[in-house]
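Take a protein:
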Amino acid sequence: MPAIINEMAPDFQLKASNGENVSLSDFRGKKHIVLYFYPKDMTPGCTTEACDFRDHHDDFSELDVVILGVSPDPIEKHEKFVEKHGLPFLLLVDEQHEAAEKYDVWKQKKMFGKEFMGIERSTFIIDKEGKLVKEWRKVKVKGHVEEALNFIKTTLS
């Protein structure tokens, strides 16, 4: 069943870039969550998005928000991505696209005339009670992090 606004966000457990297993339910009652799905570590758009979240990390933290990035990359790629760009938040490994399917972001894509399955860049805001309160699908990177931050400031704080 896909994620639905104003209902409980689908939970999952995935390996994180710090080697630990992370579940959304770990944060219930403690933190709001920015859950963002992105296609691939070390690509231009994904690097820009991750660095934008990095650059606004303190702003999100002040609002009791944890940022979690999710892609199908293996943990070794996540570790290199985190190290290279100084990312202060966890990246989650979704090689089997378990979380991506729960959030309906595992999609048929087309690039250079080839069709393949992959992540549709999307962001979800989950409140402290675990309820999905906002989603952005087919995200355009430029200005997106600021838009998510403004939503949280005006809606959840």
Q: What stands out?
A: Helices lie at 44-55, 57-62, 75-85, 98-102, 144-155. The mean pLDDT is 95.
